[in-house]
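Sequence of stearoyl-CoA 9-desaturase (Oncorhynchus mykiss).
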Amino acid sequence: MTETTNPSKQQNGDAVMPETSTRDDVFDDSYKAKEGPKPPMRLVWRNIILMFLLHVGALYGLMLVPSASALTLAWTALCFLLSALGITAGAHRLWSHKSYKASTPLRVFLALANSMAFQNDIYEWARDHRVHHKYSETDADPHNAVRGFFFAHIGWLLVRKHPDVIEKGKKLELTDLKADKVVMLQRKYYKLSVVLLCFLVPMLVPWFLWDESLWVGYFIPCLMRYALVLNATWLVNSAAHMWGNRPYDRNINPSENRFVAFSAIGEGFHNYHHTFPFDYATSEFGMKLNITTAFIDLMCFLGLAKDCKRVSRDLISTRAQRTGDGSHKTG
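Predicted 3D structure, token representation.
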């Protein structure tokens, strides 16, 4: 299998991907979940209580929306976008899959945006996501969708990790993450960066710049926005692993889900992504319903990103004909 690149974004040629690497260079479908009795799930009551309080606060923030100024709502939307990009363009496409290269200023920006999203530091997020791809839908998958929608969506955060997740995570090659000074600096100061960027900045900017009340600032651009970003990300783990068509590989659970693609700014083309995880666009349709791809393209235009990996049309068509469910369409 030959990996192709977009000439408008590629300055240096990428290596040829082996034909056996259609899902991921770390994917191993020979792995099977261990047989025998499953270890009991151990609830993490701190997480349960905090998630409950967060969602209650988010619902209250939703009730406050009519009383918020237009500037506050616009600021909330901007914070949502920045937070989401810290996950989609940063922790996911850049650091988990290395699907493009980013300059130091862009990596710093994405690390800060990732802290605003507050979904574990980049190192831990990328490690768990690589485990998810390598052992998808097994006990070693952190949010194994076979265990149901609730578990894949939020339940996996409310219980202790399955021992297989921990065991397989320790065996991954993560030297690239450890060698990235931006990643390790964010990891070192992660808690402080979360307090500042996820909570204080979203709340204080409206109060300081246009006299919004701290009460509204706390519940709308802070809690409500944070809960929305979390749930948009979780939908990729749950809904996009359950509902939708499978035009590229009918033998895996991840599906094409346009609602998730819209809410998660481009991450819902999940059958494509699990079939070709190294593609920076996570879709063959470019920027269509894919704000993250548009952002990366803009960064390439500005000279802040390069070497975007793409899959050739011929390879996509061949793979769809060979393993797809027959629903593949181009354009």
